[in-house]
Amino acid sequence: MSQETFVIVGASLAGAKAAETLRAEGFDGRVVLVGEEIERPYERPPLSKGFLLGKDPRDKAHVHDADWYESNGVELRLGVRIEAIGREQKEVRPATGEPIRYDRLLLATGASPRRLDVPGSKLQGIHYLRSMADAAELREALSHGGRRVVVAGAGWIGLETAAAARTYGNDVTVIEHEPTPLHGSVGPEVGGLFADLHRRNGVDLRLDQGVAGFWGAGQVSAVVTSGGAEVPADVVIVGIGVRPNTGLAEAAGLEVSDGILVDASLRTSDPAIFAAGDVASAYHPLLGRRIRVEHWANALNAGPAAARAMLGQEVSYERIPYFFTDQYDLGMELSGVATPGEYDDVVFRGDVDGLEFLAFWLQDGRVVAGMNVNVWDVTDDVQALIRSGDPIDPARLTDPKVPLADLIQPI
Questions:
Q1: In this structure, what CATH number is given to the domain that contains residue 255?
Q2: In the β-sheet with 366-373, what is the strand arrangement from edge to edge?
């Protein structure tokens, strides 16, 4: 009997953790991990946090030590672009070199930044942040201070890079087409609190307007807003979201809709192919619908879940979405889904003005998401409230004297 081969396309956090799990679970076949970047697998949060701020060295972001792959029998192929999947032949086809046969295939191809297609968008000095190389280039641009930085987009990446730019002593303007920062992620109630945070730290927020174009002679010198204003700029950071890298899957005939469609075991419409991380739109048993989660925790946990499913284990991936951020003196964890239109109220517990509080998003009296700001060791309780699905008395939920654990109904 020939040795089984499991191929992972995407040398990402999800891909690397999947390879680690295959070995930890006793798989003794061939494991091939293929990535387009020349950098070995790394975690992305440091790119807009510790590494960008110069607090953490490059190596701290790597998922494994350099010798881990060889010592664990994982064939790590970097700088290799897979051009196609041959489902009938069960092989992936690199741009150069021989096809790689697979018995099981995991697609962990991630996502790519949305690009601004406006006049002047090819000028020098306009940055997108997705890779380690991007972060290193941006850190160099920000670290000297005293520069005029314009950030297009007040999502998580936009706000984190704005905070980093201010920490380095730059002048920062953020342009956002929604009425508050993070409008699509947490809604206006909490988005407004992040607006106040950045204004207190000297950021010029231009809301309800977008970017119409860029001026400059080779190098960007100004950003033109949709309202006609010209904002001087030495450095521009564009953070307007990402698109899942579904091209390979689409070309191979897999089911795709804002991500590669997978079931609760992270299996695609082809039983031999799985998908995990930013690229996967997975059925979530607890929520009863598909969601695509772009955060670090999803890559960290979905990669191992997909690996176990590839091995034939029973898998139901139903982790509560989780995200964290650090901006200035604010540290925050968010659990659940707080998208506008999917909740009907937001309530607070603690000192909102002093940035030491919890926020809860409610739908029909049930907690669907919770955020803790500079309050720690409560994530398990917050997630338990979400999982319970029980209506909660808002008066008790917002009372700091009532322990969160007391609100969780026994199952």
A1: 3.50.50.60
A2: 322-327, 330-336, 366-373, 356-363, 345-351
